[in-house]
Amino acid sequence: MSEARGRFVDEYLGYLLGQANHALYRDFDSHVRAAGLSSVEWRVLATLHDSAPLGINQLAHDVLSKQPTVTKLVQRMCEQGWLALQADPGDQRRTLVTATPAGKRLVRPLLEKARTHEATLLQALPATERTALKKLLAKLAQRPR
Known about the structure:
Elements: H1 13-34, H2 39-49, E1 54-55, H3 56-62, H4 67-79, E2 83-88, E3 91-99, H5 101-122, H6 127-141
Antiparallel strand pairs: 1-3, 2-3
């Protein structure tokens, strides 16, 4: 006779990470929409806000989207004045993307709201667990492909 077990998904890391991601963004998404941004526009601006200029491939990786999608999005965001393109000084064939001052101004209040929202969600965990959770997730995310 086999021991009674819970549902597979209740212990499956991919499912748990997905549910945690949903819990984190479920309420925050309304702030993103109120700022006039889509979720991927938010991720692009949040990534570039305090980053060195990035190539399209790295940006697509960082914002969890496909390169062709990010290429089109970057073009639209440049037209809106939120992003700018520049030649890579190390490789003139490559283009880098950077946030403009207008893009940084647009996303700055959302960054503060994101920090507050995250803190509220994580307040159920002791500080040591919050720190450990972030370190472990970063370690999993940096695993070589």
